[in-house]
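Checklist before submission:
- one chain only
- standard amino acids only
- sequence pasted in full

Submission:
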Amino acid sequence: MQSATALPGFEHLLEVCRSRAHPMKLESPSSSGPPAEPSVAGQPMDSQLAAVHARMGFLWVRDELSVFPARHERRPDLHRVNAHWRQEWAEPFGSLLVFARDDRLAYCYATVPTLVDARGLQPVVWVDVYEALYAVPVASSVDRFFDTYACYLEAASVSGEEDGPPLRTFPWSAFEVIARDRELVERIRAGHFDFLLQANARAREWVERLPGVSVRR
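Returned file contents:
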């Protein structure tokens, strides 16, 4: 069984960016920073997310995403963002743990603490905050999310889209890559994410493209 602190997906994303000279900024964690905290704004910290923060202070991938630092004096950080999130959004969305955002728009990436598995890993959802709040499941764990995003960037590079403004959008243009995450697909089929999908027709239609999936209305 893979250790929760092993991060091959995170390393894959960094390697894809480096090999394709995709602009990114990776800052090391502060050596004087506080030790990893067991919770964030009242929600349990995911073990893989804690491992990511042990390896980086901040990650930005141009036109794609940025991962919040755990704590930072100037940048939006994990603790401040989530404290504000708890005040802003009602349940069930208020209990998500937001750890990254789209580089161009206000879409967010969050773990779902209420769906933590036996290994202590939390699945990841993409969250649209523009209109009626809704979420789409995109990965069975934090590191699987980074691996999925790396595969998505690789596919985009092959298609020749890397030289101009991104025409694709994640997750809508990454369905085939996301569907390779068998653990995620099984959890979607089992209805684990229905409480985040029921209120939005677009989200339901997207996941119901998966064989054997039907979201309860």
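Reviewer check: The longest helix spans residues 142-158.
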